[in-house]
Amino acid sequence: MPAPSMTVIVPAKDASRFIGTALETLVRQFPDDHALKLVAIDDGSSDDTGVIMRRYAERFAHAEVIRNGTPRGLATARNQGLAYVEGDSFCFLDGDDWMQPGRLPALQRALRALGCDFVRTDHVTVQGAQRRLVRAPFTHRGIVADPREAILPVEDRTMVDYPFAWAGLLHRRMLESGVAAFSDGLFTAEDRPWIWRLHLHARSFAVVDAPHLLYRRGLSDSLSKTLDRRQLHFSRALSEVLDLVEADRDADQLLPKAVFSVLALSSHHLVRARRMRPAVRRELRAGIRDLLARLPRDQARTAIDRIGGSRRRVLARVLRDADHA
After folding, report:
1. Is 3.40.350.10 the CATH number for 6-216?
2. For 106, which of 208, 210, 233, 238 could close a Cys bridge (C-beta 3.0–4.6 Å)?
3. What's phi and psi for 185, nearest 5 deg?
4. If DSSP codes are grouped into helix, strand and coil, which group holds residue 155?
């Protein structure tokens, strides 16, 4: 049997409403059903997600379906999938999203032609009947670049602010070097340290045009809407970002960007925390206070001034608490 040239990792939990659509779009990517390997991870679902995964696996010449008895989180599920990668490239797809026809062949051609470590793309958000194109924040298209050059400037949205693991294709070199792995156990913000690690340690990348991935937003059960204890992993994820940058050879240059990102994301979570249960809210605020205590004070104050508005006041108050903790 011919070996696959690419692997797609699809983790999902309780996604029975959408997983069939996601997998159907994979079935239709290549005319040769040997070209693509499916690795599907049912992460402790209580619905028919696993049943649908196994049914679709029969339509692939190469497929693995992994079942977790209890949910282990998106980061761990993706890492489980990485252990089954075959071919010279791999990518991720979440169970509630889907791809336009021809996306994967286009990404594979671009990755091979450019010879880089990974390629990234734009995507389309879907919320009800509304669709919106979201551009990857990098000026050059189809040109190989140093991933470090896409981290700065501090105040602009850059590629480390575009962390979506599913928005591209990676060469298996990123797997073999360990750069593509996620931090086990993270239930949210798992893509933040992942994208920084990718841009700090890969040698080359490109942003390319391709048929789009469509990303569902506004689902009531998505982690971006969830206000339970899983959100507490945010502080750990951002702490790992600081660890990565502080250990880097260009720490002095890159740390202001990391500080700005930590504060901007913290302000978002502090505003959302108002709708959390009191015990979870207190724990989240304590985690953010500890996170902010790590930041160089001069850089933190400069970043807060850039953020401005009501979030500036929230951050300034938490930063004062951190100073007196």
Report:
1. no
2. 210
3. 90, -10
4. coil
